[in-house]
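Reviewer 2 asked us to include a model.

Predict the structure of this chain.
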Amino acid sequence: MIKTDLSFLHVSALTLLGTAVIIAFYMGHVAQRVSLPSLIGYMVFGVILGPSILNLIDEPMIERLSFLPEIALGFVAFTIGSELSLSSLKRLGSGIISIIFAESFGAFFLVVAAVYLLTRDLPLSILFGAMAPASAPAGTVAVIQECKAKGSLTKALYAVVGFDDGVAIIIFGVAAGFAKSLLIREASGTTASILPTLGTPMMEIGLSLVTGGIIAFAFCQMVSKLQKSRDILIILFGAVLLATGLSTRWHLSLILTNMMVGFVLVNSRREALVQRVRAPLVEIMPLVFLLFFQTSKISRTIGAITSDNHKAMHINWTNDFAMNYNLIRKAKESLFFLEFMYLL
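Predicted model (structure tokens):
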């Protein structure tokens, strides 16, 4: 692949971001002309700007812009939560639970089996499998909103992409603990219990829901007294920033936290208020999607594209596991694993 390095131009981050937003907008329209979602155009242009091709946005600048995908993902999660009313979930029935578990555990076991057949390394296979259920909901929500999709299938999609985040956290925590136990037994001959590792994912889910619930209560109280869309948008923006910031600071799931804010809103307030909150949100979501898909793909090389919200959910657990892996495995295997963790 031919790479043209234009980093010597030293263009400021704001100049690049402004130019990129405008060009990405038209790239999205080009994608639509060929019957593709506009997000494809956003992602392609993000890759072009990044280290893979033009290198206009280098690693230090990527770090400075890293907060943008997190904020965008917060708005996406709030949107999902605001679509999950209890009445619609009841209409979907128990089948939606089966879909969520089948999708998550099916991906886990399939990847474990495939990696084990290739490597014959069970701990490594389990860890790769634990990453498989994690999915980024932004793409699904972006396509749904662009197509203006409605109906039972749309509600089911919102539920699946929302709740599988919690299932993925649990699967990763249990699987990482089990893989770590296998490595310790292989190295020392002793068996370590995986029960202590179960507390971490359950605490992450619980604290995410509690934090989101508290923010949601305050948010609902404030917006219930507002009538103007611009005033509601200001409070909404602040609530999403607060939920995202606390999730990042306390290593919680920013998807579950923000989703809880929207979930409490739609299930505790009248439809008229919910619609007043959704109205300004619908107007800003195209910009949110553009910023998310463009900036989140800038740092991706052509040969290494992985899930962004998986990184947000599990970066601390994977780093801890990587250190144990490095201490136990041979140098070659350890370097391969650490390189993979870095790419995530």
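The longest helix spans residues 152-188. The chain has a mean pLDDT of 81. We have added this to the supplementary material.
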